[in-house]
Specification:
Layout: H1 2-22, H2 41-44, H3 47-64, H4 75-93, H5 96-99, H6 104-124, H7 128-134, H8 137-148, H9 151-160, H10 163-178, H11 180-188, H12 190-212, H13 223-231, H14 234-245, H15 267-304, H16 318-322
Helix pairs in contact: 1-3, 1-7, 1-8, 1-12, 3-4, 3-7, 4-6, 6-12, 6-15, 10-12, 11-12, 13-15, 14-15
Length: 323
């Protein structure tokens, strides 16, 4: 079981890196002759679509080839996985991708989808066992199994799933890529942009891996600590969003270098909306995640103690009956 767990983590990290490495095509906004409705990313760069389709195939094929599941995947979990795939497709292949080159606010929407919404939904779908079972034998046995048997793979897994490391990585990358210098460079440079999205996607999967407990994985954190873990990112996220919102000048110059589909939307308004997008939906995702953890905690308690003893009513004294 632990071998399957390591295999899933390594395969997921490789897939996330590959998807992130392919999402940036030209990085020059909407191509000439196209509109925001026709500028779909898969037309110029189909690699993310192919990888997402492969993930869907592995998941569905694995479910079909799992006649007696030890931990059945419910319909809502399947729906969550499919929704996560759709979210990543929308972020990486829809017009959101080229529009993010023109508008800081849309770029922030894209980042929330890539680092928070998509990974959370996919991991809630308990994809580890279905995807491993759905892979071809040569890949599962000949590649992944050999990798996870190595001491180096075990050491890497322990380190990258340490809760301190995951939260530092998650917040550190968020702050680093919001600094005007690296952010503008990512908008200008294809390779840096690819690195930005790849690292955000990987950090998102590692962060939520600790929180949502996708079977058969069991997080090393107690449910109460997971709620605290989510709460730790609210304040830094709020401070970062507020710092961008209350800037008196435009701090991201890269968005001023391309013509905009909607010129009436000023650069300062775009920056304020982007900061609010980072601030409010980012905090809301933490609250939603905490609610999911509380529900999972309740389910776990019910599984361990399905018939809790009923409270015994206290008998009243004779004096109280007389009164």
């Amino acid at each position: 079981m632990r071998r399957a767990l390591w295999a899933g983590v390594l395969a997921g990290g490789f897939a996330a890196l590959t998807v992130g490495a392919g999402i940036a095509s030209a990085h020059q906004g909407i191509p000439p002759g196209q509109t925001p409705l026709t500028a779909w990313g898969f037309i110029t760069n189909p690699i993310p679509s192919l990888l997402l389709l492969a993930s869907l195939y592995f998941y569905i094929n694995g479910l079909n080839n799992w006649p007696n599941p030890t931990h059945p995947v419910s319909n809502w979990q399947k729906a969550s996985f499919f929704a996560g795939i759709v979210v990543l497709f929308a972020a990486l292949q829809s017009p959101v991708e080229p529009l993010a080159e023109h508008y800081f606010a849309i770029h922030q929407v894209q980042h929330i989808l890539v680092r928070m919404v998509g990974p959370l939904l996919i991991l809630l779908g308990a994809p580890l066992t279905p995807m491993l079972r759905g892979m071809p034998t040569w890949l599962r046995q000949g590649v992944i199994r050999r990798i996870v048997r190595t001491a180096a793979a075990r050491w890497i897994y322990v380190k990258i799933t340490n809760p301190v490391f995951t939260i530092v990585l998650f917040l550190g990358l968020l702050f680093f890529w919001q600094v005007p210098g690296p952010h503008d460079l990512a908008v200008h440079n294809d390779w840096v942009h690819e690195l930005m999205h790849a690292t955000m996607l990987i950090s998102g999967f590692l962060f939520w891996w600790i929180v949502v407990d996708p079977k058969p994985h069991r997080s090393r954190l107690h449910y109460g600590l997971r709620v605290l873990y989510l709460g730790l990112i609210v304040l830094p996220n709020t401070l970062l969003g507020a710092a961008i919102v209350f800037q008196e000048r435009v701090i991201y110059s890269a968005y001023q270098e391309l013509p905009r589909p909607w010129e009436g939307f000023s650069y300062s308004s775009d920056q304020i909306l982007g900061g609010l997008t980072l601030w409010v939906p980012g905090d809301m995702m933490c609250i939603i995640g905490a609610g999911i953890v509380m529900f999972m905690w309740y389910q776990r308690e019910m599984e361990q103690n399905p018939n809790p003893p009923m409270p015994v009513p206290m008998e009243t004294s004779g004096e109280e009956n007389d009164q």
